[in-house]
Design brief:
Oligomer: heterotrimer
Structural class of chain B: mainly alpha
Protein name (chain B): Peptide ABC transporter permease
Largest sheet of chain B: none
Largest sheet of chain C: 10 strands, mixed
Pfam family, one (chain B): BPD_transp_1
InterPro entries (chain B): BPD_transp_1_N, MetI-like, MetI-like_sf
Strand content of chain B: under 5%
Chains: A mainly alpha (294), B mainly alpha (318), C alpha+beta (547)
Helix content of chain B: over 70%
Distance between the termini of chain B: 8 Å
Membrane topology (chain B): Multi-pass membrane protein
Subcellular location (chain B): Cell membrane
Largest interface: A-B, 69 and 77 residues
Chain lengths: 294, 318, 547
């Protein structure tokens, strides 16, 4: 899970041109995008306003029945202690959306900038950064999370840091390959012979051409970080109680699965719609720009 | 051509050694940051200070950290992975007991997941933006989006508890015959496939579509070559490099990343071994596992690159 | 069956010291004690009673006639590469259960936790608990064929005193001054000070007897009912019936395989799907699920396991008595019992002696849930409206959920608790007893004296809150040498009151240990209140009945 889908372009394997192809599948109305955008906006709104809308305090025992089904008082049922699931999801979404969004953005930002610099930097620097990167990629992310939380305790910044250390190397890999590919293309060579500085080349010639693959990659990274958070809850790590991110909500109520409890289904659906929405939106944006169709 | 492949392999081997060295340093550094040490972990909640002191000396934990690292490294160079401090068994013996299980699970999953992923990816790419593609897209995304432990637990509830078709636990030691083998591996492999097929299929689709957009495919289309041949004979060989890389990365996950599947199905693999090792502050064992994961990752990526080179005529003649 | 009758465990009345009489004057009457016990007290032997009869080996209750044969698979809640067959190092349920399969102790506990003869055929103290003589059972052999001798016992007991052994029972063993063999069948143990509970200490699983000079414990060579056929730490172990077992007719099963499944829902699923026939550490929520299955049953025992709030006296603001008292009033014990443990728990009263313990002081008034009173006390302590972190961890059973409920009730009293959950990894060495406000978890101890000595005596290394009370320490020391049951009982009542009122720990409930089993597994009706798996001893007592 540590690995991006797109960690694949190595210059040695794909020297062929990456010039944009004409877009042949433009559509007047893009359903995918609308579905994606709606879901994303919905979850962003929940993340911002959810805690205010929660009918009950997130930690309060309000029901005398656990794992109950939908009712007027508890539209999404109750959890393993008898707390209101709707309130818990409304509050928990902020953690999942916020943490995953920040961590995915940071991973891609750090990975992409380092990747681009490595591709343009002298060989020794490129080599050493790449080696370190390989080393980090090969450490399983859940193991890293386990060690980090044991060593430093579970705080929000630490969770983000852990996710970034786990996922920035993947972003680095794809960005470096993309940048190295682009750097061999004619127009970059032309700029070089023109005597343009490295920073100029990076910012003006290389960056715009890697934007979409990096964006797509970020979409998958977002999903993986959401899943890493839920995987961490499996190992007993993660957001501090009484709060819980969506993955932890699934995890803590897993005992209710045998009776088909809403307490499991609700947060699982929430994760699904959030991640699918985010990726549909990104997919459609990339496709529309007609870049590389990823 | 053989010469260039030889060169690549040699180059990778030398850079691989430095990567492994970095991994060992990183692992050593972060495990040194962990609170508590092996002596405390072994003696547990109710240890007395003199016991902890005695055990530290016994285990050599009273030595300064850099010295311990160097002595571990020295041992490694002479082929000795060291001893597990938590049960005094040689690390190599512990690993030997688990590694075949992990490799077997990874192998079966690979054999099943890769063809399915390729098939789905290719089908999706060929029907790009049509209904099938969209359905497959949402399906694969949903599969990625469900937490692994939920897939696994749900599978156990349905197939083991309610239907009683499959065992809830995967006992590798009791395999008798092919039927038994299938029953035992069905659910862990299913769970892992759910995670991996989606990832790999999405990548395959992206790589092929990327090729379908290039001018030479356009040329082939104009020449009147049918869509199936265009994809299989022209796009796929060129897309094999990125696909092989994506597959390699997904597969490297199958050794170290499957802790949840190992836990739920009680499968004695190498990921669980490393989690135990971290919990016990069993440094030699942690290091050995990390080395193994890193080596596996490097080998897989190397194989993927070789695949790419062999499949691509232009690269072959470079 | 083969238990021979014991000679009296000599504690002559004439040897009772003046101290004891003094304690008796302030204590409860003998009549009260007898009424409460309904039986002849914990140390029946001291009045010449027969120990052998109470073990109940001859009949197995309502389960019918034992059958021979069959194999079962058992899943415990944890297994790791640190699993060990060295009895001295046992630390988890799966270790203890294996040690009970492969080894025997000099003594063993019965259902009332009274130590009964096992490898020691009888034991006697001649001077009120300082010098003890253990006579070994004849004709017992280890799994490798070597006969049991006094030298093995000396080795097995003495090794606990050596820090290099890494024994989990070292703190108990420090009171042993000397162990020596008198001939091949007798062992003499001398203590630093009298302790009439030595037979109970020798019954704990760490004190099991291994062959003299054992260095490699991975073969599990002992005298126990099963022989170790396979042992892979963290994976599984297989024990096969020891046909030469000294207790005739035992055990019944041919083979027991033990594995660990750390994920509770998976453990329950494995039981319900028939992959395993016995599991431990079931949550209250899942117990209902197991009961609903026609082929399965749960066994729930309250052994006095507790998760407690630790308030350190050496840190602020937990050093303030009013604050400590306020926190104790903030436990909504009924709610904790219901919500966290699904009623598989018993209300506790901020002292560690469980209702099942013979020394439980029932007349101590129960501390209620009273946020108003707590608010008042918090004001008095000067921490009204404060914001305080409380440390919880999955390592201390249920502590995260208890913390959440405590947080809710603290709000009512105007105290803002923030929960700091830390991983179970490294919890005991790095967090436990290190924060002003945190949680601990104490497993059942075989005797009240061991419990109080280890966790409440001023000098105890695991005195969780750092509580120091001279009166308590004196009572504890006196009680060890006190042969009169009634006097002892009163001493324990006083100690419970002291802890209830002054000590910096809050104990909301005693948590039941719940096992789940296949109903075809019979003979599972003994209750040894030490933990799950019938106090870890199930292997010797259960049989498989397919009919």
């Amino acid at each position: 899970m540590n690995n991006s889908l797109l960690d694949s372009r190595r210059p040695s394997s794909e020297p062929e041109s990456r010039v944009s192809a004409p877009q042949r599948h433009a559509k007047p109305f893009n359903l995918t995008r609308w579905v994606g955008a709606t879901l994303v906006i919905f979850w962003l709104l929940v993340a911002i306003f959810g805690p205010m809308l929660a009918p009950h305090p997130v930690g309060a025992l309000v029901a005398d029945k656990i794992y109950s089904g939908a009712s007027a008082a508890f539209p999404l049922g109750t959890d393993y202690l008898g707390r209101d699931m709707l309130s818990r999801i409304l509050t928990g979404a902020r953690y999942t959306v916020g943490l995953a969004l920040i961590a995915a953005l940071l991973s891609s930002l750090i990975g992409a900038s380092l990747g681009m610099l490595a591709a343009l930097a002298p060989r020794w620097l490129d080599e050493s950064v790449s080696r370190l990167n390989d080393a980090l990629i090969s450490i399983p992310s859940k193991m890293l999370a386990l060690v980090m939380v044991s060593a430093f305790g579970a705080s929000i910044p630490l969770l983000i840091l852990t996710a970034v250390i786990s996922y920035a190397p993947g972003a680095f890999r794809i960005s470096r390959s993309l940048a190295a590919n682009i750097a061999t293309l004619e127009y970059v060579q032309v700029a070089r012979t023109r005597g343009e500085g490295k920073l100029y080349i990076a910012a003006v010639e290389v960056l715009p051409n890697m934007f979409h693959p990096v964006l797509t990659d970020m979409g998958m990274r977002f999903v993986f970080i959401v899943l890493l958070l839920s995987g961490m809850s499996f190992l007993g790590l993660g957001v501090q109680p009484p709060m819980a991110d969506l993955g932890s909500l699934v995890r803590e109520n897993i005992g209710g699965l045998s009776q088909g409890a809403l307490a499991v289904i609700g947060p699982a659906l929430a994760i699904g719609t959030l991640t699918i929405g985010a990726n549909l939106l990104i997919d459609s944006l990339s496709a529309n720009r007609g870049q590389q169709g990823e | 051509m053989n010469n260039s492949i030889f060169k690549i392999v040699l180059g990778r081997l030398s850079s691989g050694v430095s990567t492994l060295l970095i991994v060992s340093l990183v692992i050593f550094a972060i495990t040194a940051l962990l609170p508590g040490d092996a002596a405390q972990q072994i003696l547990g909640q109710f240890a007395t200070p003199e016991q902890v002191a005695a055990l530290r000396i016994q285990l050599g934990l009273d030595q300064p950290a850099p010295l311990r690292y160097l002595s571990w490294l020295g041992g490694l160079l002479s082929g000795d992975l060291g001893q597990s401090v938590s049960n005094a068994m040689p690390v190599s013996e512990l690993m030997a007991g688990r590694l075949p299980n992990s490799l077997l699970l990874a192998g079966i999953t690979t054999v099943i997941a890769v063809p399915i992923a390729l098939l789905l990816g290719i089908a999706s790419a060929m029907c790009r933006d049509r209904l099938l593609d969209r359905i497959l897209n949402v399906c694969t995304l949903s599969m990625v989006a469900v937490p692994e432990f939920l897939v696994a637990t749900l599978a156990v509830l349905i197939f083991a508890v309610h239907l009683g078709w499959l065992p809830a636990l995967s006992y590798v030691s009791t395999v008798e015959g092919v039927g038994d083998f299938i029953r035992i591996y069905a659910m862990p492999v299913l769970t892992l496939c759910a995670v991996l097929v989606a990832q790999m299929a999405r990548m395959t689709r992206a790589a092929i579509i990327n090729q379908l957009d290039s001018p030479y495919i356009e040329m082939a289309r104009l020449k009147g070559i049918g869509p199936l041949r265009r994809v299989l004979n022209h796009a796929l060989p060129n897309a094999l490099g990125p696909i092989a890389n994506a597959v390699a990365l997904s597969l490297s996950y199958l050794l170290g990343g499957v802790i949840i599947v190992e836990t739920i199905f009680n499968y004695p693999g190498i990921a669980g071994l490393m989690v135990d090792a971290v919990a016990n502050r069993d440094l030699a064992l942690v290091q050995a596992c990390a080395m193994l994961f890193c080596a596996a990752y490097l080998v897989l990526v190397l194989i993927a690159d070789l695949c790419a080179i062999l499949s691509n005529p232009r690269l072959r003649h470079q | 069956m083969t238990n021979k009758k014991n000679p009296p465990n000599i504690l002559s009345e004439s040897e009772q010291s003046a101290r004891i009489h003094e304690a008796m004057r302030r204590g409860m009457s003998r009549r009260d004690a007898l009424k409460t016990f309904g039986v002849a007290g914990l140390f029946a032997a001291s009045t010449g009673g027969l120990l052998g009869s109470s073990l109940g080996y001859a009949s197995e209750g309502t389960s019918g006639t034992p059958k021979r044969g069959g194999r079962i698979r058992v899943a415990a809640h944890a297994a790791s590469t640190s699993d060990t067959l060295d009895p001295a190092k046992g630390s988890t349920a799966i270790d203890y259960a294996r040690h009970e399969m492969f080894y025997n102790g000099l003594t063993e506990f019965d259902e009332r936790l009274i130590p009964q003869p096992s490898l020691a055929e009888h034991f006697v103290t001649s001077d009120g608990g300082t010098t003890w003589l253990f006579t070994l059972r004849r004709g017992v052999t280890f799994h490798d064929g070597k006969p049991l001798s006094a030298a093995d016992v000396v080795f097995s007991i003495a090794r606990h005193k050596d820090p290099d052994t890494g024994s989990k029972a070292m703190s108990l063993a420090t009171q042993i001054a000397d162990v020596k063999a008198l001939g091949s069948q007798q062992v003499q143990i001398t203590l630093n000070s009298p302790n009439i509970e030595l037979p109970a200490i020798l019954a704990v699983s760490h004190m099991k007897i291994v062959p003299e000079g054992t260095v490699d414990f991975s073969k599990g060579i002992g005298t126990g009912p099963f022989r170790c056929q396979e042992f892979s730490p963290g994976v599984r172990s297989i024990g096969v019936r020891n046909d030469n077992y000294w207790r005739e007719g035992r055990p019944y099963l041919d083979e027991i395989e033990m594995v660990g499944i750390s994920d509770e829902p998976s453990r329950v699923n494995a039981l319900l799907s028939g992959d395993v026939q016995l599991i431990n550490a079931v949550y209250g929520r899942s117990a209902e699920r197991i009961e609903l299955s026609t082929g399965h049953a749960v066994k729930s025992v309250n052994s006095g396991n507790y998760t407690d709030l630790v308030m350190r006296v050496d840190q602020e603001p937990t050093s303030r008595p009013a604050f400590v008292e306020a926190m104790k009033y903030l436990f909504d014990r009924e709610q904790i019992k219901w919500a966290v443990f699904r009623n598989y728990a018993e209300i506790a009263n901020d002292h560690p002696i469980a209702p099942s313990n013979p020394y439980f002081f029932a007349d101590l008034p129960q501390r209620p849930y009273d946020p108003d009173r707590a608010r008042h006390l918090l004001k008095q302590a000067g921490v009204e409206g404060a914001r305080l972190p409380v440390v919880a961890s999955p390592a201390a059973d249920g502590s995260e959920d208890i913390a959440v409920l405590l947080q809710q009730s603290a709000q009512q009293a105007g105290l803002n608790l923030t929960i700091n959950r830390v991983p179970s990894d490294g919890y005991w060495s790095n967090h436990w007893m290190k924060h002003p406000l945190g949680f601990g978890n104490i497993n059942p101890r075989p005797t009240a004296n061991i419990l109080l000595s280890q966790f409440f005596q001023s000098s105890a290394p695991w005195n969780e809150s750092g509580w120091k009370n001279e009166q308590f320490d004196q009572l504890l020391t006196l009680s060890r040498a006190e042969p009169d049951q009634a006097v002892r009982k009163q001493m324990y009542a006083d100690m419970q009151t002291l802890i209830h009122e002054h000590c910096g720990i809050g104990i909301p409930v005693f948590i039941n240990t719940i096992d789940g089993r296949d109903k075809r597994l019979k003979g599972y009706d003994r209750t040894i209140p030490l933990g799950g798996f019938m106090g870890y001893t199930f292997a010797e007592h259960v049989w498989w009945d397919d009919a």
